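Throughout our pipeline, every protein is held as a single compact record rather than as scattered files. The record that follows is passed on verbatim for readers who wish to inspect the format:
___
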Amino acid sequence: MSALPYLAGVELGGTKIFVLRARGREIVERVSIPTTTPAETLGAAGALLRRWHEAEPFAALGIGSFGPLRLDRAAADFGHMLPTPKPGWTGADIYGALAGVLPCPAAIDTDVNGAALAELRWGAGAEGGTPSDCLCYITIGTGLGAGFAMQGRPLHGAMHPELGHIFTRRAPGDGFAGACPFHGDCIEGLVAGPALARRFGVPGDRIPAEDPRWDDVAHDIAQMVGTILLTTAARQVLIGGGVGMGRTDLLDRVRTRLVAQLAGYLSFVTKDTVGAIVRPPVLGDQAGPLGAVALAMDALEGTGRV
């Protein structure tokens, strides 16, 4: 039997939750549960974790959740969901409902921060023999979320990054009003799945690659990526999710526009290097689950936000 202890992981998404156990970074069992109400969803996940723990104890738990989350350990509502468009989830005690069922160290972060951490350690950030010191992971799907891993740790401050709600310079002639219920034409309101459906009149996956309306979408995403590179000096910007990983043709357009928009100001971003900088996640759809494992490892080592 492996000498590595069992680690528990939870990846909580808007439509489903993955509950998993792993030895080291190897996921050995994973169960999917629909995301319904907090009581039902977190109750089912907690019951499964408890059963697994009784069969063979966990050494630590990592939780990666959709947000926004309160991650300040000094706050009375640490680990709770902040105001969210997800009906019924505002105020839900994510950390308490899951960590409370296991007598082991636990850490919680956003799902995208966890994915960024996994990519930093085992994916794009670990390629080439020299570990990366700054990486951004973006998922573009139903919403747009971004996480950052810097110097081996997820980025936190007053909160966690909420890149989906920044504003970018619009493409000339683009009159689309945006679809974000909070901000209209923030970047999430311009390029996430529901925004594409409203912009195009049909879901984005039904629009052919050659449709010129993709030019405005590529412009918007390139504006966001340029902002990331200019403000954080990230070595990689990984674009995942249904929109990000589902359209390689869109990613090519983004790269072309990014180089043009930067106009040579960042010498490390050229037409020859941009493909290695702006790319899909190396871990693919495993970045999220492995992010929960990475958070559990940090909790076990005493470096997580427990």
